[in-house]
Amino acid sequence: DCEADIHDFSGKGTGLSGSVDFDPSQGSQKLAGKVELKVASLNTGDEDRDADMRKDVLPVKKHPLISFVPLEITAGTPVAKGGSADLRGTMTLNDVSREMTLKVTMAWIKAGTLRVTGSQKFKLTDFKIDPPGAIWPMRVHDEMTFHIDLSFKSS
């Protein structure tokens, strides 16, 4: 989600891949894995804005991926029971890596599939991205919110 002077807008990415290793019988635990999103798959519903974004804000040719490396989950109950947790990891955007903690909710949606949802605010400038303004017909605020809605299948 992005706030801007004229109107707010949202985007969605569909080019997601990766895996995360965890033990569903444990609550708090170290994690291993990586989730990547293809920047070219981000879509805000406005073709001109998307083209500008991929060229000037998130240059897809220079930085084609956004990644999140989960490091640890802190949960009061075993992951197998679902519920709320803190997911700590490192997000890399624009070749800049920052550690962050997301408040997430976990739920088993069917046998062997864990759904993890949550959101986190961050500043574009923390990732060395100048908020669009002069190049766009509207000024975009520095703080953004990204939402996750991921499903993990057990192997």
Number of helices: 1
Radius of gyration: 17 Å
The low-confidence runs, each spanning 5 or more residues with pLDDT under 50, are: none
Biggest beta sheet attributes: 9 strands, antiparallel
> How confident overall, as mean pLDDT?
82
Overall shape: it is: elongated
- The tally of beta strands, per DSSP, is 9
Amount of beta strand? over 45%
- Structural class estimated from helices and strands: mainly beta
Approximate helicity band: under 10%
Q: Which series of helices and strands comes N to C?
A: EEEEHEEEEE
N-to-C terminal Cα separation, in Å? 33 Å
Task: Describe what this molecule looks like in 3D.
The structure is a single chain. With 155 residues, this protein is mainly beta. It has one helix at residues 47-57; strands spanning 2-4, 16-21, 29-30, 32-38, 65-75, 83-93, 96-110, 113-123, 140-153. Strands 1, 2, 3, 4, 5, 6, 7, 8 and 9 form a 9-stranded antiparallel β-sheet that branches. The longest helix is centred in the middle third of the chain and has 11 residues, at 47-57. The model has no long low-confidence stretch (mean pLDDT 82).
